[in-house]
Amino acid sequence: MRGVFVAAIVALGAYVISCSNSPTSPTGSLAALSGTVFDSGGHAVSGARIVVSYPYPDPTSPALRSSAPSRLLDIPSPLPSARSLAVFNNPCSLGVMTFHIGLPDTAFLTGRIVDRNGTPRRLLFERTFQSGVYAVAWDGKDDTSATLAPDVYVFHLTEVQGDSTFNLSANVLWNPSDPTAAYAMQANSQGAFSVPLSSLANGQKIDAVDMTGAPLGSFVVGKNLRVTATGPPSGIATVGATTVATNAQGKGVSVTVRLP
User: Which of 69, 106, 218, 225 is 20 to 30 A from 33 in CA distance terms?
Assistant: First the structure.
């Protein structure tokens, strides 16, 4: 379904106070992204909300930044000679990405989004298709209509023809950065947070493609991380963000974000 996630976020300012590589997090666990959120007066922001995303140019066209239900499109074109799968608008942080499927023969298809642990998150379709070329849009939501957190997900396409089964898949980067969304984490009473680097998409690879299908090159996710924070939990919230580089040694990373 071709819904659109609209990030209700306005960057009012961002200041990096400190940034360093450290082998441990404040809690002693190895290889974590840890940090603290402060307000403009230097006070820790209790309960600040934080999102870690990936600073990569988003190929989303303004034409896709409108609200419309996801839908399956039958694209008029010559019948394909072989099965195929292509992802347009990858990575995507606002709008939809589309999966273009070439089907030379009638078959039963299942299209599903799974996370990096293999857990199914969204069933996009499961039915018989006639031969042809189709496109299905994904709006970054799961089966409960909740917007998923920034990460690399996998689109799995399974084709069944009689006794034969064929599988195609593609890595995709869903990359929103709204700290007010349900997927955001929350800082503790001292404004501190810690995220294991192993839970992030560090080292994952995608083939970046714009909305027209033009390749933009391979992209290793997680070399740089963007930390976006908002607070206080009540009252007039402000937003700050900063970018921090990870390191080849797999050490932890510390960052401080100051809200304007």
Answer: 218
The residues, any chain, with a CB within 8 Å of residue 187's CB and separated by 6 or more, are 36, 37, 45, 46, 47, 48, 49, 50, 193, 229, 231
Q: What domains appear along the chain, each with residue ranges and CATH number? A: 15-58+177-258 (2.60.40.1120), 62-173 (2.60.40.4070)
Backbone phi, then psi, for 249, in 5-degree steps? -80, -5
Choose among 195, 196, 134: nearest CA to 159: 134
pLDDT at 175 over 60: yes
Its pTM stands at 0.80
Helix (H) or strand (E) holding 193: strand 192-196
CB 190 within 8 A of CB 36: yes
Token duo for residue 167? 């599988």
- Rounded Cα–Cα distance for residues 18 and 6 (Å): 31
Contact between 45 and 38 (Cβ < 8 Å):
yes
What amino acid occupies position 120? P
pLDDT, mean over the chain: 79
> Residue 63: is its pLDDT beyond 70?
no
